[in-house]
Amino acid sequence: MKIKVNSIKSKFILSSILIFFFATVFLNIYLSSLLQKSYSNRIKRDCDILYSSSRDYIYRYAKLQSIDIDQTNIVYLAKSIAGGITSLNPTYIRILDKDLNVLCEVNKDLEREYILFSDDLKAARNNNATTTITKINNKYISSFSYGLYFNDNLVAIINFKSDYSYLFEEKNKIIFNLNIIMLLMFILFTVIIFYLTNRITNPLYKLINIVERISKGSYDTEINIKSNDEVGILASEFKVMQDNIKENLDTIKNLELYRRDFFNNVTHELKTPLTGIKLYSDLLEQNYNDTDLVITAADRIKNESNRLYSLVDNLLEVSKGKISKAQENLNEINIKPIAETIVSDMQLIASAKNIKIAYDISDIHVRAYTNHIVQLLINIIDNSIKYGLEGGNVYLSISRKDSLCNINIKNSKTNENVSTITGNGIGLFIVDSIVTKLSGSLIIKNTLNTFEVNIKIPCL
């Protein structure tokens, strides 16, 4: 991506510089052409003045002398005519016969090296007034010639030469100064182009870097692009998109946490009745002749099966996208009979580790779901048995104090790392959730040899 941005930036800068360069060259050529045309017109005007003034002088001279100038007397009159013309126009002049032989010349400080034969002399023989400009040793010499006619006969060739180097030096100076100005403008233009290009592409470059970081999972990357143009709008819209992505990801994470918690809760919910069913099934298999045990086990298996069926039915409702409320009503519950039944059941599990459950349970009424109380008691007793010291004791106490039901369970532990809800597995997590729903509190005390859970919930 960086290569693409740099490529666009380079192309834009290069294109702008080339456009300005060619525009500068074109302007330079155009202005040079205008100056050349202007100076050529000036030289032409000067030549026209020479042509007009010199012809008028010669014709007036012939009229005053009452003579007709011809090829014979021009040889004698040439010097006088040339002198008169130079008095009016102080420039180099020479008069040649029709065969281009020099009859007379008047030189006003023009060096001999610049007085050369030029093509305008030949053109003058054909009755064409012509001007040529020749560069000789860095000087620009203008040569103007025309044919002098009397009675329609070519009598002589009049030739003027002038140094116009100052005009071309002026032109070169103007072009040089123009080039300096163009160079300064080119530098300024290049700096401005670099500045504007960087101002346009740098935010894009930053935005692309941000996109790269976001694509790698860094969704907290801050977009700090302050601009009032389209790039700023793009950055603003992208920030909105970034916030939406982040919000959706947070939602997905929360849903994943909810899914995991839901799965763990469901697993534990299903495990509790299944544990009871398996426990009483094993007891029936070992003591099928004990009539009282058979009656008790059958009743417990039936109750646990009904609870398991209810859980599965609720899960089916959830799988269809329905969040069903508990089938039982929130009502007044006496904790004592529920707790005694659970202790009796859990004692069978505890006996496998030679653990004895000692309990002191008072008649206490609370407003809750029966299933919540069952889950709460099963989980804290099950955890105490699971992490209890083999051959040790579990102490359960349920009492009333200051309108609160105090549920306390303590055991001698085997695992020193059992110190937090998460450390105790999902059981105490479920307990914490239930206590929160009942507006109660949960306190865990961990010492070197014992682990204690104390629960307080409002009572009636």
UniProtKB/TrEMBL annotation:
<feature type="domain" description="Histidine kinase">
    <location>
        <begin position="265"/>
        <end position="460"/>
    </location>
</feature>
<keyword id="KW-0902">Two-component regulatory system</keyword>
<dbReference type="InterPro" id="IPR036097">
    <property type="entry name" value="HisK_dim/P_sf"/>
</dbReference>
<feature type="transmembrane region" description="Helical">
    <location>
        <begin position="12"/>
        <end position="35"/>
    </location>
</feature>
<dbReference type="Pfam" id="PF02518">
    <property type="entry name" value="HATPase_c"/>
</dbReference>
<dbReference type="Pfam" id="PF00672">
    <property type="entry name" value="HAMP"/>
</dbReference>
<feature type="domain" description="HAMP">
    <location>
        <begin position="198"/>
        <end position="250"/>
    </location>
</feature>
<dbReference type="Pfam" id="PF00512">
    <property type="entry name" value="HisKA"/>
</dbReference>
<keyword id="KW-1133">Transmembrane helix</keyword>
<dbReference type="InterPro" id="IPR003660">
    <property type="entry name" value="HAMP_dom"/>
</dbReference>
<keyword id="KW-0808">Transferase</keyword>
<keyword id="KW-0812">Transmembrane</keyword>
<feature type="coiled-coil region">
    <location>
        <begin position="93"/>
        <end position="127"/>
    </location>
</feature>
<keyword id="KW-0597">Phosphoprotein</keyword>
<dbReference type="InterPro" id="IPR003594">
    <property type="entry name" value="HATPase_dom"/>
</dbReference>
<keyword id="KW-0175">Coiled coil</keyword>
<keyword id="KW-0472">Membrane</keyword>
<dbReference type="GO" id="GO:0016301">
    <property type="term" value="F:kinase activity"/>
</dbReference>
<feature type="transmembrane region" description="Helical">
    <location>
        <begin position="174"/>
        <end position="196"/>
    </location>
</feature>
<dbReference type="InterPro" id="IPR050398">
    <property type="entry name" value="HssS/ArlS-like"/>
</dbReference>
<protein>
    <recommendedName>
        <fullName>histidine kinase</fullName>
        <ecNumber>2.7.13.3</ecNumber>
    </recommendedName>
</protein>
<dbReference type="InterPro" id="IPR036890">
    <property type="entry name" value="HATPase_C_sf"/>
</dbReference>
<keyword id="KW-0418">Kinase</keyword>
<dbReference type="InterPro" id="IPR003661">
    <property type="entry name" value="HisK_dim/P_dom"/>
</dbReference>
<dbReference type="InterPro" id="IPR005467">
    <property type="entry name" value="His_kinase_dom"/>
</dbReference>
